[in-house]
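G.,

No rush on this.
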Amino acid sequence: MADEAKVLEAVEIARTTGKIRKGANEATKALEKGQAKLVVYAEDVSPKEVVMHLPLLAKEKNVPCVGISKKEDLGAAAGLPVATAAVVVVKEGDAKSVIDQLATEIKE
């Protein structure tokens, strides 16, 4: 499993130097349009159905997808004052090397 701190760091770097979209709906749209480079979702989302489809869709589109334990941590990494169910990186910016590393770890 990928290191949560590294995943959150990738989201933060992508937020400041690239482009991210926040929320399960935005993540789904970016995946469907083939824009997603990395999908991160929170495992403590209730109901689970909100994010359940993301790992499946990401696998279908061959995009690295990581679950992290807390939606609050994900929201903070995304620069939000609130928790978020999912974040998708659409432009890596300076996070490209970290995301490539994560993608390799996830595939293993």
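When you get to it, here's the other one too:
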Amino acid sequence: MKNKTEQQEALFSTDQIRELIVFALGVIQRRWRLLLAPIAATLVLALIAVKLSPMTYTTKALLLIQSANRPAAGAQLQSTNNFTRQVVMDQVAALETWLKSDEVLGGLLPRLVDPATLTTPEGIEAQLKIVRASLTMEVVGGSAVEIRLDGRDPRGLAGKLEAIVERLMEGLTRPEKGILNSTQFIELQRREAVANAEAALSRAILMAGIVDNEKTRNVLKQINDYKLQLIANGSGPGSLRAETSAIGNSIRTLRAQLTDDQKVADRLELLYAEYHVARSGSADLRGSLSSTRSNYIGIFESPENLLIVGRPQDPVYGQRPAKKLAIVAILFSVMAAAALVIAAELLNRRLFMSAQFRAVSGLPVIMRVPA
């Protein structure tokens, strides 16, 4: 009895599967236009897009980091290798950011693009964006760096990548001119502040119609020294005590030597005070700008640790980037077509399966007449 029941259940399950297959084939037969229309339209558009999309060529350069190939001793071999790979990946990411900066890549642009496109700031910015997007760096296995350069024209593409690799090697193995340590940067900023303040003072003296620039500066220096002395004595300029003191009388005498215009005299005194502050700040920071500066990044212990595998070659074959987008679009169109068919069947009130009839009527299905 038990075996008979199991056979009936198995037979019933087989009938259900067969009915589902028949139903699915019926759906495809009824809805084939709705199923194929989105796929066919997307396929045609994808083929047109692939045909019209430009061909892209890629050239590569492989750099081996010799120090990263040294095996680690002891039981911590795996963890050490993982740590080394992570360090190399972090440094290569920083190196790529440096290489794509305006300062570095901007200096390479005349060797990478047509100089005629660099005649305007807008043209330079547009070419920088194009080169940044076409240049990529990737760590391979933790001990190699692959540099790729994409382009529309295969001719001369290898030479452009060699120019980039050359600039990369220069930044890694030689002192980098555009890099300052904190002390050098602060001193450079303060020297520029002194130069700007001095230029502003000279312009103001010239606009005031004063011929003797050096004498005017000496007078302004004396006035500024007297003001500092008043501040040190606890009576700032403008106070009653300062105006009635001997120092106040000396300041008024010196002002008379500058000009009769009080506003011009105040302007010159203010500019000289700013110049004095800038000079004092620059003098507080001792040291000079060194001509020897360290490298930007230190992956390598010495230049010999960097091995360049061959030289880049101009690519022979290219690829169309639109192919990947076309494949993705076709897959989405298949999904969209299936969704449309399912939605159409859900809105259809006709009964095609025995399970649907039982659910609606509550009566058992005795037999089914084939179409």
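Residues 2-53+321-361 form one domain. Residues 2-30 form the longest helix (29 residues).

Enjoy the weekend,
O.
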